[in-house]
Amino acid sequence: MHDFDPPFRPIRRRDGYLPLEDLGLIGDGATAALVGLDGSIPWLCLPRFDAEPVFCALLDRSRGGHFTVAPQDLVDARQRYEPDTGVLITELRSGTGTVRITDALAVRSGADLTDDAPAGRAELVRSAVALDGDVRLQVDVELRGGGQARTLFSGLELRPSRHPDLRLHLRSNRPLSSLHSTHDLRQGERLDLVLSWGRFHRHHRFDPDAMLRETTDAWRRWMKHFDYAGPQEPLVRRSAITLKLCDDWANGALVAAPTSSLPAPIGGIRNWDYRYAWIRDAAFAVFALRRIGFASEADGFLGWVLDAFEQSRSPRIMYDLDGNPVPDEIEDGELEGYRRSAPVRWGNGASDQRQHDVYGEILDCAAQWLRTGREVQPALWAGLAGLADSAEQAWRQPDQGIWEVRSEGRAFTYSAGLCQVALDRAATIGDELGLPGRITAWRASADELRRLILEQSWDEDAQTLSAHLDGGGVLDASLLALPLREVVPTDHPRMVATTAAIAERLSAGDGLLYRYLHTESPDGLAGDEGAFLLCSFWLVDNLVGQDRTEEAEELYASLCARASPLGLLSEQINPSTGEFMGNFPQAFSHIGIVASGVNLARARAGARA
Question: Are the CB atoms for 230 and 597 separated by under 8 Å?
Fold first, then answer.
């Protein structure tokens, strides 16, 4: 549970690894790092989110590499964020004293985080101060694959063996002679460490205090735009910051998660690289961000989607941060995987899948973009109109669906629903702006496809819409998203019945939902998985739309209570243990916190009116 003043707790390890709940996230809009409760940084990719990691102990505790600052006889610790910032504080107690470490990926002085421009300094600040007693700090810097280190400019120059083009510079207020050192601190004494890449600072002032202060100020200026009055307000605030930490500030893309290959479940093979931008995330993220005051980020993501579409000339389900194709998926046999859950993967093999929902995702983004007063250029409209024409036929063909199954394709109801969205949005855009195109035909096809979805996927015996357009009664939690995309009304009798069926048959207990049951819907992969958090937030939204507000509020509160003490959520939850599973932190889960909170706040306001 999110806790502003958490108690100290012992360091836990499972199979030699920290639980995901004991990791915090810091970032600078170009990359992100995970900071452990034990003072380690086991994950940092340089110079950007989707680069190869320099520190990768998250995926191999022995060979992955890490940057650790911790007391030699560590007993327990706690973590919290500086309020309304991405600056993280870890307090660690030894048998002789307590030290506080403040970690941040620094941003430039005066940076405006609403700008679509780089703000990071390409510097990691780790500032330790002894709060009481005497503390002997151990500093260990180990690069994945090793490297060379030599003294340079009052610090150390590091040359990672796996990154021949990357030069790192580690500076300190105390002498450093190697990558492993000890430092004795008495109460009030400090150890400041700054790891830089991109440029060296031979004659620049070494002022970690100023860097942390300027970074804190930049975050708090950005958070002045936050506008939300609803349930779980502190966690919604933290989710807004977490989403910003998953955002590439220079171009507007949002990575699904800043990590790769965290397994769901432990010991399974469902380990994927999420350090890319999915088109389908855009519409959900834009809804969430715009409604809590962050229109600039919403517009940035919409613009990035349309730029990527125009650049690729054909719709893709995901892109790298520059709007280019995602690298081919490869397995890294050198790393054992988190808690020995191999394989570790880089790149993503689903990037070339056929997923028909992409037509609706792009056109829905275009519709939201145009609602802000933007203009559509002829070349862009020609491409969008072509998508609508393609969607008119594509829904009849099998695809891999929203969950990117690696089995033979089917005609998924959600995919057909998003083809309906494509037709509906294209007709609306064309009609409102007086643009050329098959406006009447698109509108008629959208209405007919909505009718077919409600009729053909309905299973009378099971009293539910089905995962597949040909019926059969097999369930899929993505059906809960159909009302959110305005395919069918939330309170349509068949949607109400479907909601009840999903809540019962896909239940993992205590408000958690599976995406689908593997016994009913084989997906081409061995093993099961955990409960998918976003699906439960979709259930909240459906309950709100069906005027079941009290139930929705109870479910929402129970989901929010699953957040870590730092207010972070993973992709999935182990229903048996409550442990986090999958890539972490997961943008989709935090989008759910924000969007469902907004919907509940509106329902409350409507009830008072």
Answer: yes
Query: What pLDDT digit, counting tens, does each position of 273-298 carry?
Result: 999 999 888 778 888 999 999 988 98
Strand runs labelled E in 415-556: 458-459, 464-465, 507-509, 512-513, 531-532
In angstroms, rounded to a whole number, what is the distance separating the alpha carbons of residues 312 and 319? 9
- Give residue-wise pLDDT tens across range 42-69: 999 999 999 999 999 999 999 999 999 9
Please give the Cα distance from 530 to 441 (Å, whole number): 42
- Contact between residue 506 and residue 514 where contact means Cβ atoms under 8 Å apart: yes
> 181 is written with which tokens?
């050192």
The contacts of residue 417 (CB under 8 Å, 6+ apart) are 357, 360, 453, 481, 482, 485, 487, 488
The answer to whether the beta carbons of residues 476 and 467 sit under 8 Å apart is yes
- Residues sharing a CB contact under 8 Å with residue 411, sequence separation 6 or more, in sequence order: 395, 396, 397, 398, 399, 468, 469, 470
DSSP 116: S
User: How large is the angle between the packed helices 587-608 and 549-560, nearest 10 degrees?
Assistant: 150
Q: Taking all residues of the chain, what is their mean pLDDT, rounded to a whole number?
A: 93
The position carrying tokens 């998660």 is 257
Q: Cβ distance 419 to 387 under 8 Å?
A: no
Helix axes 413-433, 439-456, angle to 10 degrees: 150
Handedness of CA 371, 373, 376, 380 (dihedral sign): negative
Terminal-to-terminal C-alpha distance of the chain: 32
Q: 478: which 2 tokens?
A: 């993505």
Burial of 275 (0-12, 13-18, 19+ CB in 10 A): buried
Within a 10 A sphere around the Cβ of 8, how many other Cβ atoms? 13
* pTM for this model (two decimals): 0.96
| φ and ψ at residue 147, rounded to 5 degrees | 170, -175
